[in-house]
Design brief:
There is one protein chain. The chain has seven helices and seven strands; from the N terminus they run H-E-E-H-H-E-E-H-E-H-E-H-H-E. By secondary structure, the chain is an alpha/beta fold. The protein has one domain: Rossmann fold, CATH 3.40.50.850. The protein has a seven-stranded parallel β-sheet with strand order 1-7-6-5-2-3-4, sandwiched between helices. The site of zinc ion (ZN) has 5 residues, from loops. Pfam families: Isochorismatase. Belongs to the isochorismatase family. This is Isochorismatase-like domain-containing protein.
C-alpha cells in the first residue's frame, strides 16, 4: 500500500478540481463506457484482471450500472468500447488479454444487458485508444459518426483504466473536437468515481521481471490530473434528475 501521506501530498501538489454534473435531458449527452469487460474487471478472469476483489473496480461497476440504467430509461445514447484482440496480434507491453470471442472480451455480468438495448452502440477495439480503435477500413470513424448522428454536445466518459484507455480516448476526443471533427461536441467529462485502474504495488512489481509498478490510487489520480490538463472536465458526482426536464 502506498501510504496515505503520499497520496495526500500528491493531491495537494497536483490538485484536481471536481464538480457535480446534473443530467436533466436538456443538453444532448452521450455516455461513453470504456472496457467494462471481464478481462479488466472480474476477479481471476485473465492476465490483466484483478487477482483479488478490488474496491475501486467494484465501485466503478456499481456506478456504471446506475448511470447506464438511467441513460437507457431516458433513451439517451450510449457508446460502449470492448477491448478485443486477435490471438496472433500482441499488444505490448501487455500480456495477452481480452482475446476476441472469450469471456474476457465480454461486458461484465452486471452490464451484459446493454447488448440488447437499442440506444447502445458497441465497438470492439484492438488498441488502447478507442478513438483510433473506432476507425473503419474505409477511413470513417464509428465514434465520430455516433456524435454526429446523435448531435451530442457532452460526452460523459467512464471506465477502466483511468490513466490508460480512458485517458488516451479522452485526449484524442479533445484533439478531434478542437479540430472540429466532432461538431457539435463541446465538453468531454470524466466521471472520476466511475473510473478505476489496476493495482500493481511496488513490492509486487519487484518480484516480476520487467514489470512496472502501478499503485492504483496514485495512478488513478494522475490519470484524472492529466485528463483535466488536456481540457477534460472532471466530475465526482453525477445526478440523474429528469424531474427537472421542462
Ligand atoms: Zn487491450
Amino acid at each position: 500500500m502506498v501510504s496515505e501521506k503520499i497520496i495526500d501530498l500528491l493531491k495537494t501538489e497536483l490538485p484536481v478540481q471536481q464538480e457535480s454534473l446534473v443530467l436533466t435531458g436538456e443538453v444532448a449527452t452521450g455516455l461513453v463506457l470504456i472496457d467494462l469487460v471481464n478481462g479488466f474487471c472480474t476477479v481471476g478472469a485473465g492476465n490483466l484482471a484483478p487477482q483479488v476483489p478490488n474496491k475501486q473496480i467494484e465501485d466503478m461497476i456499481d456506478e456504471s450500472v446506475r448511470i447506464a440504467r438511467s441513460f437507457c430509461k431516458n433513451k439517451w445514447p450510449i457508446f460502449a468500447f470492448i477491448d478485443s484482440h486477435h490471438p496472433d496480434i500482441p499488444e505490448p507491453p501487455y500480456p495477452p488479454h481480452c482475446i476476441a470471442g472469450t469471456e474476457e472480451s465480454k461486458l461484465v455480468p452486471a452490464l451484459e444487458w446493454l447488448e440488447n438495448e437499442p440506444n447502445v452502440t458497441i465497438r470492439r477495439k484492438d488498441c488502447i485508444d478507442g478513438f483510433l480503435g473506432s476507425i473503419e477500413k474505409d477511413g470513417s470513424n464509428v465514434f465520430v459518426d455516433w456524435v454526429r448522428t446523435n448531435q451530442i454536445k457532452v460526452a460523459l466518459v467512464l471506465g477502466i483504466c483511468t490513466d490508460i484507455c480512458v485517458l488516451d480516448f479522452v485526449g484524442s476526443a479533445l484533439s478531434a473536437r478542437n479540430r472540429r471533427m466532432l461538431v457539435p461536441l463541446e465538453d468531454v467529462i470524466v466521471y472520476s468515481e466511475a473510473c478505476a485502474t489496476y493495482d500493481l504495488p511496488v513490492y509486487v512489481a519487484q518480484t516480476i521481471e520487467g514489470a512496472i509498478a502501478h499503485p492504483q490510487e496514485l495512478m488513478h489520480h494522475i490519470g484524472l490530473y492529466i485528463a483535466k490538463g488536456r481540457g477534460a472536465k472532471v466530475v465526482s458526482e453525477v445526478i440523474c434528475d429528469t424531474q427537472l426536464m421542462p
